[in-house]
Amino acid sequence: MVWSLSVTVGCVETQNETQKLSKGAKWAIGIAVFAVLGLIGSIMRGTDDTSAADEPTPTPSMTAEEAADDQPIEDRFAIDELDGVVTVTFAIRDNFTKNMIASGAKQDTLDALRLVVEEYPDYSTIFIYGTFPIVDQYGNEDPEGEILFLTYQRATVDLINFDGIDPDNIWDIRDGGRIDPGLES
């Protein structure tokens, strides 16, 4: 008797007849296929299944410490203050798409503003710089290329309800600055 697995996993064909697989058999086949794909993926990565699968993988714009979920918000930003002018710099984290990168940078902008309000109550102006690895037209890479520069005056920040604002609007209410066209959606 010759057995072959049909393309539509759910039937087993013999030379003479087709038999329906039980629900349990279908689950078993599905789990086996998933396990084999996981094994192949582990081999291709050069690691085993006991690797640090729970830890996020650092991207070029962030260190392993920055990738940690429990990283304090203060540690994501470099902050300087001089005479009421606060400058915040942060590395924009890489993601799957440009829109996802921009969404993360908007959330980081909102977090930076909130942090400045809490930590520097006498500020008058906030400058926010976002950096990201870029390559110029000549092929030269700058690992900390400035692709985001935003200015917020105190009067604008005082209007923000940090518990209610949609992070997608945070760049729209800025008082000045420049956003790289690759970040704008």
Name some characteristics of this structure.
185 residues; alpha+beta; five-stranded mixed beta sheet; elongated; disordered N terminus
Describe this structure in words.
The chain is α+β, with helices and mostly antiparallel strands. The chain has 2 domains: 4-45; 64-179, no CATH class. 29% of the residues lie in helices and 26% in strands. The protein has 4 helices and 8 strands; from the N terminus they run βββααββαββαβ. Strands 4-5-6-7-8 form a 5-stranded mixed β-sheet. A 3-stranded antiparallel β-sheet has the order 1-2-3, with no helix packed on it. The longest helix has 23 residues, at 23-45. The protein is elongated and about 75 Å long.
Strand tally: 8
Helix content: 25-40%
Strand content: 25-35%
Provide a count of the helices.
4
If you compute it from the alpha carbons, what radius of gyration comes out, rounded to the nearest whole angstrom? 25 Å
Which series of helices and strands comes N to C? EEEHHEEHEEHE
Looking at how many chains there are and whether they match, the oligomeric state comes to single chain
**Which strands sit side by side, in order, in the main sheet?**
4-5-6-7-8
In short:
The chain is α+β, with helices and mostly antiparallel strands and 185 residues long. It is built from four helices and eight strands, in the order E-E-E-H-H-E-E-H-E-E-H-E.
